Amino acid sequence: MKQSYAAFLFDVDGTLISSIASAERVWTRWALSHGVDVAAFLPTIHGVRSIDTIRSVGLPGIDVEAEAARIERAEIADTEGIVEIPGAAAFVSSLPPDRWAIVTSASLELAKRRLGAAGMKLPRVMITAEDVTVGKPDPQGYRLAARRLGVEAADCLVFEDAPAGIGAGRAAGADVLVITATHGAPAAAHPFSVADYRGLRAASTAEGRLRLEGLRAL
After folding, report:
1. In this structure, are 92 and 68 located in the same domain?
2. What would the pLDDT profile of 107-122 be if each residue is shown by its tens digit?
3. How many Å from the N-terminal Cα to the C-terminal Cα in the chain?
4. 11 is catalytic
5. Contact between residue 114 and residue 12 where contact means Cβ atoms under 8 Å apart
6. How confident is the model at residue 46, as a pLDDT?
7. What residues make up the domain containing 40?
8. Of these residues, 13, 52, 78, 138, which one is catalytic?
9. Co-location of 94 and 146 in the same domain
10. pLDDT band (50, 70, 90) for residue 218
11. Is 163 contained in some domain?
12. CA 164 to CA 104: how far, in whole Å?
């Protein structure tokens, strides 16, 4: 990892907030209604756009866009149990507003709903499912966020949790810090990981860059 970065870029679900129970309730109902093996299916939903998840199942004769809209409505309605990852709210609140952004596979409405349920603030730059033509693990979202902040993606630190997002950050050329609070497995193959934000600090350098402190792996 670098000593400092131009900006920090964050995924939402599993990275800033924990919405896994809500998401899995909604997707379990959907899977059961279509005769999909729930146990095999649920691990595939995290970190990717709903429409991409549905397409990947390959069910014959379904309207993928209509099914994605149905999932969207259900997820917006179900916010029970959504909370911040410990320390996340304080951590992002400490960052300069022009030095961080969100890159999520959720829609703008869903991301706002979940962040609000967890008591999290919104950044000035927020890349959602509507802003990209290809979702994670494609790096398009992270590259777009960096561009809107006026920096290079390779000069950013990406905070992620799921394999698709980790892959997107790496493909964008960024360093990636894995948050393991909700998904521990991806961290096993990644040298930089932390359970949550407790103990982490962001310091601004004299040049206006961000330095991450409190991570033992550094």
Report:
1. no
2. 999 999 999 999 998 9
3. 7
4. yes
5. yes
6. 81
7. 20-77
8. 13
9. yes
10. very low
11. yes
12. 11
Cβ atoms within 10 Å, residue 86? 15
Residue 66 in 3-state DSSP? helix
Give the CATH number for residue 114. Answer: 3.40.50.1000
Q: Could you please report the per-residue DSSP string of 15-37?
A: TTEE-HHHHHHHHHHHHHHTT--
**Tens of pLDDT, residues 130-188:** 999 999 999 999 999 999 999 999 999 999 998 999 999 999 999 999 999 887 655 44
Query: Of 11, 52, 78, 161, which one is the catalytic site residue?
Result: 11
Structure tokens at 24: 């899995």
In the block, tokens 């866009």 appear at 65
Six-digit token string for 2: 């670098």
The residue with greater pLDDT, 218 or 69, is 69
Is residue 94 domain-resident? yes
Tokens 């969100």 found at: 102
Write the secondary structure of 86-108 as one string of H (helix), E (strand) and C (coil).
CCHHHHHHCCCHHHEEEECCCCH
pLDDT at 189 over 90: no
Token pair for 216: 């033992």
Question: What is the spatial distance between Cα 38 and Cα 132, in angstroms, rounded to a whole number?
Answer: 28
